[in-house]
Specification:
With 317 residues, the protein is mostly beta strands. The protein is built from 2 helices and 25 strands. A hairpin with a 6-residue loop joins strand 7 and strand 8.
């Protein structure tokens, strides 16, 4: 029979956008100040990870959208769904930038699009101009922000991708620093056991630094964490999480890049909190069989083996 184990849990969440000292600033912001984010890279969404940054536009359409670097239009599309009106710029650096949910494009691009739509007698249109036909310098206006496609409100969705693979990169690794002095908040902590099926119990807290001491009569447990990074009226996703047991990392990842083929693995990584007033998705700090998401570090699978009649320290940061 298992004896009770004491588990001390320390949760420390640092400021999300503060430490990008390794970033290579090669792009400019695609929209003028005020710069306010309503969505971040890797944010948990239903059935997918968010692949870019969402910039707020004061709840209105009509802000000038600018080329984030020198480049040429490689793709342009108008659609009633998805990204709606969207421009893709290729850059000599080997990247592609994406500007989605636009109201309309630069006049020359609109003329080009209108001609193709008229000839095809179709609103839905996707075009791939010859390289160099439409070139822009950094800061040039390429379009106007809108609310087209699957947008839930006026904003600019912005991505930076690898040009060859079209794998999305975290734009914050390439843009000037965005300072954020508000630490992420812990909303729900859930402990899982598997014997033979998963069951769980939930600890609740709403502070950014907590210390819990609890008892459990299991020899192995798993943890999940619901957290968000408050920014005004928005709750943003986080950049990284690591789980340590007695100072050893047993689970870790950072949202630096991921392919669109991997985005479905969000369903193996997250679960609804199931707690009233805590709507959203929790991060499972353990890896399920078959979850091949590439961002997991080689630090373990999040399985904690608890000592019997002793105390183990568990830290999430």
């Amino acid at each position: 029979m298992l004896k009770w184990s004491k588990v001390q849990l320390l949760l420390v969440l640092g400021c999300f956008l503060m430490d990008f000292s390794h970033a290579q600033v090669t792009f400019f912001f695609p929209i003028d100040t005020p710069l306010v984010l309503s969505g971040t890279f890797g944010e948990l969404r239903s059935n997918h990870y968010h692949s870019g940054l969402d910039f707020k536009t004061d709840g209105k359409e009509g802000r000038t959208v600018k080329a984030a670097a020198a480049g040429w239009v490689s793709r342009i599309k108008m659609s009633a769904v998805g990204f709606g009106n969207v421009i893709y710029l290729d850059h000599p650096s080997g990247h592609t930038t994406v500007y989605a949910h636009l109201h309309h494009f630069h006049p020359e691009l609109m003329k080009y699009m209108d001609s193709a739509q008229y000839a095809a007698e179709s609103f839905e249109m996707e075009l791939f101009p010859d390289s160099g036909r439409f070139s822009f310098s950094p800061g040039d206006g390429i379009g106007v922000s809108g609310n087209t496609g699957g947008s839930q409100g006026p904003h600019l969705h912005f991505e930076i991708r690898d040009r060859l693979t079209q794998v999305p990169q975290n734009p914050l690794l390439f843009l000037p620093p965005l300072m954020d002095s508000i630490a992420p908040m812990a909303g729900v902590i859930t402990l899982f056991k598997k014997d033979p099926n998963f069951s769980f119990f939930t600890l609740l807290d709403s502070s950014s630094e907590i210390n819990h001491l609890f008892h459990i009569n299991e020899d192995t447990v798993y943890v999940s964490l619901y957290t968000d990074d408050p920014s005004g009226e928005n709750k943003l996703g986080i950049y990284s999480i690591q789980l340590l047991q007695d100072d050893s990392i047993i689970f870790s990842y950072q949202y630096n890049q991921f392919s669109f083929d991997e985005t479905r693995f969000v369903n193996a990584h997250s679960h609804p909190t199931g707690v009233k007033g805590k709507d959203g998705w929790a991060h499972q700090l353990f890896k399920l069989p078959g979850d091949r998401f590439s961002l997991y570090a080689d630090a373990g699978f999040g399985k904690m083996v608890l000592p019997k009649s002793d105390t183990t320290n568990l830290e999430i940061d």
